[in-house]
């Protein structure tokens, strides 16, 4: 296995005359949390969409565990072990917490419709197997008291956590999170930050994180990439990036002497 | 001086000279395949049989021995209630070591005192949070050598030579087990019933917590008392929820668990207790008053969200339940049957109390309202009275439920000794003898000696009144009692608290000490409730002073006082009272900012009214200086009614 889980080389993405992603290269190493930050409209989400396959880059390539996946559709990438959470909430509101997390396993389930209807031996076993895996995630995310609660009744922060649980159901080799903390209060942010660290440490899953909240990013990330106007303007460990004059200028505006 | 004698128990499952480890071995031999402990994991109950439980205890014990824990050493635990915590305690006891537990929400400095005082060599810590606290102490507390943790979450990066996981502890014990496979049982079966098992630290409201030494016999005897009084059967379910740091859990969980024996279950985590409780529907459970209050208010909050029709049905069923308890009759029986089917059985099921035949409340007083509320929905809640040093003393177990009392003396294990004898001294203090004896305090011979009098009766420090029905009524701590001129001792705080629990009364100041021959009271009425009461009776008033002196209001207060008077013996009753013409106010320094009474200030400002309370006049012309927040002062002058209670002795 190579030393890089996910790498992007010279990615370009244009919409008509607008260049959203301009020659961005990125490498994610095993067991690291990589943050992508930048002002509004910098091209962060576009970059994520190129990585997870929702957008096809105009040029450049994306490789996952050494394999070129530039042309693969998102669901194929998901099967390979790339999980992603989205901005906002993508849970099934009328299902319970456990059912939502179970839905994350669907790409690994083998039983067909007929088998499911008859619910015979092998299907039962498969059901028990995935419930067990879902319970592991429930324990990991400390959702035991809510396992049978309808998701629609829960607050935003908890729903995001369930969203994350469903992504973990893919048994991913990398987790891509698009602004997971947007709209959360301080306590919810703290909780989620702790879970992201645990995902790295206990499950050994590298994380790509697009985030606005600078404090969180600087606290938990191993690598930070700053982009502005579609270009990388700085990258490196949080402390180096924090003091980079180009970053300060991009965030605060104006010229830097 | 009043004295009553309890009874001896009749249940054949006596202690019969066995310590907790010996009982554990016995039970595992007799019922190897029955369930003893069970925990919920991944949403399912995972039972452990007696044989499996004993095996787990044995593995922990060998691990402790491998760390160098010798009989007589101390091992501590800081954890929520989890199965591993229980097994760890049994392992410590089987090793012949002393066990002490700390509340999981203690801060490091509180833990420091307990670890230092107990001389603990090993501390079992539940998870990263507890390990972090223990790590700050490992260099400060000289005796502490090892931290053993159960939950490895977040512990991946820890690399401290004195911190090990429970798996590492077990594997360290394997060699010793292979070398000497008999050692566990040899040591465990040699633990005597009189040996000290647990150091239970008292809450320490005054000064540092003291470590009460509890022997096997002591906790088992208290366990037997519950088992016999409440007919706890072999195999009854018990949910371990109150902390092992509290002597009550040592009795109900650890001791009664092996004595009855019960199935001891552990919730997934504290937040899932309501759900787990419902699934288990335990027969026997002990909560603190606060936990009962939370359960009642949670239910009421749920009812607020219910459909109005459901809510009305619920209210009707609750009312029916109350009426049926108070005055059962043919009509109420029929209505009650309907209420049971439609509402009450479902409510009990939802709370997880449908099989609870011994739901107990202990720790402090439970409000009468909450008590009658649970009785109305058919849950036979009972008060339990005891302390770390006295064991369990009394409970409602003989069929009567007076919510104001703590019930009757509990039956003692006949193999332990004489029944409990309760005696109330002239000074009002409860003295106890009989049953298993308290072993004193750890490292504190003075306090140990002080806890017994010359007749070797245990001095509880509690002011108790024994009612005519033989119930124990808790009045106060003895140090808070006051003496009247005639030498009579009475409980002022008991009066004040009970008066304050009336909606009409905001504050009550009880007067009467060595200078006076009677008890009197100054009452600060609740302006809002009394105001509404006056409005409903079409009585006009302009100011607080006028409201407070309305004859109807004064009569209402007199009625409340008469009710409270009923609870006490004649010389302790309030003989006369006056309603204050102004509210007690922190701005006038009559109250602290946290609304505690500043007695000296009150006595001084209302001296004239107090004199009148002990005089013959029916009115008192009172002038009080009022200070406004902007610093101005004015004088409030009013005629205050001095109301004498009719027949306070009756």
| Arrangement of strands in the largest sheet of chain B | 8-7-6-4-5-9-10
N- to C-terminal separation of chain B?
21 Å
Gyration radius of chain A, rounded: 19 Å
Q: Give the CATH level 1 class of the domain at 6-81 and 172-252 in chain A.
A: Alpha Beta
> What is the number of helices of chain B?
21
Termini separation of chain A comes to 45 Å
Given as residue ranges, the uncertain stretches of chain B (5+ residues, pLDDT < 50) are none
Shape of chain B: globular
Structural class of chain B: alpha/beta
The name of the CATH superfamily of the largest domain in chain B reads: ANL, N-terminal domain
Strand numbers in spatial order across the main sheet of chain A: 6-7-8-3-9-10
Work out the strand percent of chain A: 15-25%
Give structural notes.
The complex is a heterodimer of chains A (257) and B (650). Chain A has 257 residues and is of the alpha/beta class. Helix content of chain A is 39%, strand content 23%. Chain A has a six-stranded mixed beta sheet with strand order 6-7-8-3-9-10, with helices on both faces. Chain B folds into three domains: 224 residues, Rossmann fold; 187 residues, ANL, N-terminal domain (Rossmann fold, 3-Layer(aba) Sandwich); 159 residues, ANL, C-terminal domain (GMP Synthetase, Chain A, domain 3). A seven-stranded mixed beta sheet of chain B has the order 8-7-6-4-5-9-10, with helices on both faces. In chain B, strands 1-18-19-20-21 form a five-stranded antiparallel beta sheet. In chain B, strands 13-14-15-16-17 form a five-stranded mixed beta sheet. Helices cover 38% and strands 23% of the residues of chain B. With 650 residues, chain B is an alpha/beta fold. Chains A and B meet through helix 5 and helix 7 of A and loops of B.
């Amino acid at each position: 296995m190579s030393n890089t889980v996910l790498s992007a080389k010279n990615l370009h993405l244009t919409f008509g005359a607008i260049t959203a992603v301009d020659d961005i290269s990125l490498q994610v190493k095993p067991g690291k949390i990589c943050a992508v930050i930048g002002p509004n409209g910098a091209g962060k989400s576009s970059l994520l969409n190129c990585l997870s396959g929702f957008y096809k880059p105009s040029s450049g390539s994306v490789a996952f565990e050494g394999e070129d996946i530039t042309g693969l559709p998102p669901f194929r990438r998901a099967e390979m072990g790339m999980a992603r959470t989205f901005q906002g909430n993508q849970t099934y509101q009328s299902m319970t917490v456990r059912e939502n997390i179970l839905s994350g396993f669907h790409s690994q389930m083998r039983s067909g419709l007929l088998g499911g209807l008859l619910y015979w031996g092998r299907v039962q076993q498969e059901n028990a197997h995935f419930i067990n895996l879902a319970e592991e995630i429930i324990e990991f995310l400390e959702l035991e008291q809510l396992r049978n609660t309808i998701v629609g009744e829960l607050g935003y922060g908890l729903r995001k956590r369930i969203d994350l649980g469903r992504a973990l159901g893919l048994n991913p080799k990398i987790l891509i999170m698009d602004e997971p903390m947007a709209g959360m209060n301080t306590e919810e942010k703290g909780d989620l930050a702790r879970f992201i660290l645990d995902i790295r440490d206990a499950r050994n899953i590298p994380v790509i994180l697009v985030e606005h909240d600078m404090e969180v990013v600087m606290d938990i990330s191993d690598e930070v990439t700053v982009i502005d106007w579609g270009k990388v303007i700085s990258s490196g460990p949080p402390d180096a990036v924090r003091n980079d004059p180009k970053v300060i200028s991009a965030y605060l505006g104006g010229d830097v002497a | 001086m009043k004295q009553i004698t309890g009874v001896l128990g009749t249940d054949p499952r006596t202690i019969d000279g066995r310590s907790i480890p010996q009982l554990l071995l016995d039970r595992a031999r007799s019922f190897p395949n029955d369930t003893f402990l069970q925990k919920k994991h991944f949403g399912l109950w995972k039972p452990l049989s007696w044989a499996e439980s004993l095996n787990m205890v044995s593995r922990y014990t060998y691990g402790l021995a491998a760390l160098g824990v010798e009989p007589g050493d101390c091992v501590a635990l800081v954890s929520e209630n989890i199965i591993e915590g229980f097994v760890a305690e049994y392992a410590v006891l089987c090793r012949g070591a002393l066990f002490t537990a700390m509340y999981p929400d203690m801060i490091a400095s509180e833990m420091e005192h307990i670890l230092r005082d107990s001389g603990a060599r090993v501390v079992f810590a539940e998870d990263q949070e507890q390990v972090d606290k223990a790590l700050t102490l490992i260099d400060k507390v000289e005796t502490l050598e090892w931290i053993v943790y159960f939950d490895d979450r977040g512990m991946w990066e820890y690399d401290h030579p004195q911190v090990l996981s429970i798996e590492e502890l077990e594997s360290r014990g394997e060699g010793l087990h292979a070398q000497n496979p008999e050692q566990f049982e040899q040591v465990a079966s040699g633990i005597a019933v009189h040996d000290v098992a647990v150091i239970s630290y008292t809450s320490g409201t005054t000064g540092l917590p003291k470590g009460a030494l509890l022997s096997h016999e002591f906790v088992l005897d208290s366990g037997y008392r519950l088992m016999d009084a409440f007919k706890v059967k072999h195999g009854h379910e018990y949910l371990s929820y109150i902390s092992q740091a509290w002597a009550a859990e040592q009795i109900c969980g650890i001791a009664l668990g092996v004595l009855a024996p019960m199935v001891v279950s552990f919730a997934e985590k504290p937040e899932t207790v309501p759900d787990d409780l419902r699934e288990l529907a335990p027969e026997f459970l002990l909560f603190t008053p606060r936990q009962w209050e939370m359960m009642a208010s949670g239910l009421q909050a749920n009812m607020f969200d219910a459909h109005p029709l459901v809510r009305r049905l619920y209210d009707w069923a609750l009312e029916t339940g109350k009426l049926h308890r108070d005055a059962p009759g043919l009509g109420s029986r029929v209505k009650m049957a309907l209420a049971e089917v439609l509402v009450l059985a479902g409510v009990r099921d939802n709370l997880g109390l449908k099989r609870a035949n011994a739901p107990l409340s202990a720790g402090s007083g439970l409000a009468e309202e909450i008590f009658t509320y649970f009785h109305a929905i058919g849950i036979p809640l009972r008060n339990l009275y005891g302390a770390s040093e006295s064991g369990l003393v009394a409970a409602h177990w003989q069929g009567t439920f007076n919510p104001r009392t703590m019930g009757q003396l509990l039956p003692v294990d006949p193999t332990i000794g004489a029944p409990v004898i309760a005696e109330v001294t002239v000074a009002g203090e409860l003295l106890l003898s009989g049953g298993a004896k308290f072993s004193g305090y750890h490292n504190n011979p003075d306090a140990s000696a002080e806890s017994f009098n010359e007749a070797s009766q245990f001095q509880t420090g509690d002011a108790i009144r024994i009612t005519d029905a033989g119930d124990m009524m808790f009045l106060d701590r003895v140090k808070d009692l006051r003496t009247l001129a005639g030498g009579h001792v009475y409980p002022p705080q008991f009066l004040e608290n009970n008066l304050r629990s009336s909606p009409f009364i905001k504050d009550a100041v009880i007067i009467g000490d060595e200078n006076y021959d009677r008890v009197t009271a100054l009452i600060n009425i609740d302006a809002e409730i009394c105001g509404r009461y006056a409005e409903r009776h079409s009585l006009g008033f302009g100011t607080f002073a006028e409201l407070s002196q309305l004859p109807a209001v004064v009569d209402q207060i007199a009625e409340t006082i008469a009710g409270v008077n009923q609870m006490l013996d004649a010389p302790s009753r309030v003989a006369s009272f006056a309603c204050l013409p102004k509210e007690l106010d922190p701005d006038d320094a009559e109250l602290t900012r946290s609304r505690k009474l500043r007695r000296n200030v009150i006595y001084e400002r209302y001296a004239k009214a107090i004199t009148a309370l002990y005089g013959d006049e029916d009115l008192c012309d009172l002038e009080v200086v009022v200070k406004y927040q902007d610093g101005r002062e004015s004088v409030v002058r009013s005629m205050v009614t001095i109301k004498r209670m009719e027949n306070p002795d009756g």
